[in-house]
Design brief:
- The structure is a homodimer.
- By secondary structure, the first copy, chain A, is of the alpha+beta class.
- Chain A has two domains: about 180 residues, NADH Oxidase (3-Layer(aba) Sandwich), CATH 3.40.109.10; about 30 residues, no CATH class.
- Chain A contains nine helices and five strands; from the N terminus they run H-H-E-H-H-E-H-E-H-E-H-H-E-H.
- In chain A, strands 1-2-4-3 form a four-stranded antiparallel beta sheet, sandwiched between helices.
- Chain A is globular.
- The model of chain A has no long low-confidence stretch (mean pLDDT about 90).
- Chains A and B meet through helix 1, helix 2, strand 1, helix 3 and helix 5 of A and helix 1, helix 2, strand 1, helix 3 and helix 5 of B.
């Protein structure tokens, strides 16, 4: 209909979604400030509950801070290894999980739970909507970065309290994501954990229900879901071939 | 660099981010199954911690269920009004906050906190990363929908426990978002709450820090952030004019 994007724009959106990867290996080249500003602009233009814009973006270049974060992550990585059984522990420890020092910069994305005061439109029932909005901003950042040829890796094995200490973040602010950001040699075709056989990609038709939990959709939606191969930029099948 | 998108694709990503809106008014036209499948495909291709893909998408067309959800939301809306002072209460009550019955379909996006068992790679330190991943999927859905000319409105004033009851969602699954989905007459130029003067848009330079909380960035990043008007699809300034 009239508000749909022209084919090339629309394809760009699907290509970004399909080609975005969680990146752990980076080139040392600096990210030009104009590109970084565009990517942060993209993040800042996510929607937020009650227009509260609860996010901040701490751009970390300081090597001393990054070394401290890296040491903390490494300790957490070894601690987490103990939770896996013997068969999986070796695989887990073989994965490269972060590029904190390889990447030219890191970005900590935070959520200020008190921004614009205690009464936020739309947040009366579910307090976590501010955290959810911050995650939407992170996804915008990730997709814009992909369009710019910039890789992003989300490091999730950090204690929020330790990040608060290292980055001097106040208690009422939640560090939601710690991202490594930089140019890459390559965006892998598939997610690393899929390629490694760690877990399988679920079929689209398995994750969609109709009207109620666990009720599979009927035709024609079930047929359309089953044709999910219609979008596969890796195999060269685009959405815009129709 | 070589992995950057061609200009039209890249512009599509920024245009989707800039033109996405939280929609509350819908046309009754049905959403074609192929378009709905593409939008759900986009959601399912978000990244997730440990590749756990914790999301499900309950596509709700049943009018009886939607009437029950609508009645619950209306009660929550009136309850929430009591939290605002007199000056704001009138404005709050004048806003249209949802299109549950106008839209041809609703989608409840959930997070299964037990998917693939208790030990998920990367979720040992921060348990909420599965919820964060689900929000990334929601943002993908929202952007793909925008590219298709489909509006999405996130209704956040629902009790999760009531949604579980109405949609028969098990206790270990969190209903993260309740979305209204359909074609629209118009995507507003600015967010409704910005236009209404409810809260101001923060300047990009206000939400970016350098190395530590509350430390403003130095040049050249600060200059680049100050030029944020460089992307303004509404005013016809695109990212691809360089």
């Amino acid at each position: 209909m009239k508000e749909a994007f022209p084919p090339q724009w629309r394809q760009g959106v699907y290509e970004a979604i399909a080609r975005r990867r969680d990146i752990r290996s980076f080139l040392p080249d600096p990210v030009p400030p104009d590109i970084l500003a565009r990517v942060l602009w993209a993040a800042h233009h996510a929607g937020s509950v009650g227009f509260m814009q609860p996010w901040n973006f701490i751009v970390i270049e300081d090597i001393g801070i990054r070394r401290s974060v890296r040491a903390h992550v490494e300790a957490q990585r070894l601690r987490a290894a103990e939770a896996f059984d013997d068969a999986r522990r070796g695989a887990y420890l073989s994965f490269k999980l972060e590029g904190i020092l390889d990447a030219p910069l890191n970005i900590c994305v935070t959520c200020d739970r008190q921004r614009f005061g205690p009464t936020i439109l739309g947040r009366h029932t579910i307090r976590e909507t501010d955290l959810y909005s911050t995650c939407a901003a992170i996804q915008n950042l990730w997709l814009a970065a992909r369009a710019e040829g910039i890789g992003v890796g989300w490091v999730s094995i950090l204690e929020p309290q330790e990040l608060r200490r290292l980055l001097e973040i106040p208690e009422h602010v939640v560090p939601v994501a710690y991202l490594c950001v930089g140019f890459v040699d390559d965006f892998p075709e598939r997610p690393m954990l899929e390629t490694a056989g760690w877990l399988p990609r679920l079929a689209l038709s398995e994750v969609v229900f109709s009207d109620r939990w666990a009720t599979p959709p009927a035709t024609p939606l079930s047929d359309a879901l089953g044709r999910e191969g219609f979008i596969d930029p890796v195999a060269g099948k685009g959405v815009c071939e129709d």
